[in-house]
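Regression report. Comparing outputs from two consecutive submissions.

Submission 1:
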Amino acid sequence: MDCASILDKYRHPDGRFAGAVVIESTVLVIARMQATVFGLDDGLDFMSGGEVGAASAEQIPENMMDRLLDEGDLYQLQQILLT
């Protein structure tokens, strides 16, 4: 099975957006488990997730992988992917 970049979005228990995690995985459910096992989801509630397209995944900086990205990080990532 090929790995893909998966983007999982998380929220606080009160419903406010908390951040997102980009992780390499074969399927969404495994990415969610990896985020939980490695503490990347910080105990937050899962909102949604999906695969990042191959062209976009290649542009994601290594320092933005495998950690919780806050709104500032996601803004920077958006700027990278739009250029």
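Submission 2:
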Amino acid sequence: MSHWKNISLSLENYDLNKAFQILSYLDVIAVTIQDKRILKESDWFDDPKNPSRIKCETHKIILLVDIEFSTKKLITDVKSILGLTQEPSYHEEIFEDQDWVAYTQSMFKEIRISDSLRIIPSWIKDENFKGDTISIEPGSGFGTGSHPTTKLCLKWIDKKLKRNMKILDYGSGSGILSITANKIYNCKVTGVEIDPLAIKNAYFNNILNKVDIKYFLPKNFIFQNRYDIVMSNILASILISLSNDFKIFTKSEILLSGILINQVESIIDKYDEWINLKLIDEMEGWCLLHGNLNS
């Protein structure tokens, strides 16, 4: 069986985003940035429009190489390509190859939202569950149901959503929220997503769940009539920038997530000019905000 090496680098006082770009030119199998923090302390993911400086205190860079690749040469190359004055400290981990399909599948299991709703990966065929089941193929689109922000939104949909609503899912990712609202509550949903690969994944999930939902890139989304509900599970900084757009899109309700505890006040303040948002649920440091124009 083949063996591989993960070389974790400690690059003090170096912007890891910049290091990642430079190290991608090395003759290695893969370069990744990994968050050292537990989920509730993490920033989740970076905002590409407002990139932050990622440091070694919170993240690390990992280089994947073949077992035969000289670690000493690799570290010398890292020093050279990054222009360091001395070789960086590092940690080497050797591991065996494995069935990566089986490994990936083992990472995604049934997610029970309630006694009446569950999310399962496409390869699970258990028919014993008495409630509603949403099947999701893990892909580039955010939303397998495992992240607290997705769970918060799904819990709200499961308990609060009314039938036959017209919904805009802005930042639709895998389509998980759109599909749940359409499949269970017969809501007419439109998805908007910035990532074309995520949209491709969402259409595949449409097929899995026998629904027909349209997803658009922002540049192709044509607004016609207001939506009963606008829901958006994306970065707080993007939610702030979208406030004026959501004001135009929203007829009655808005549901926002992707928000850390320390970001709640800034979101509420921004939206306060047109809607009164309230913190209605929280999970592992992540928050769900809801507002109703009719209340």
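Expected: both submissions complete independently.
Actual: both completed, but the second showed a warning that disappeared on reload.
Relevant detail on submission 2: The first strand starts at residue 3 and ends at 10.
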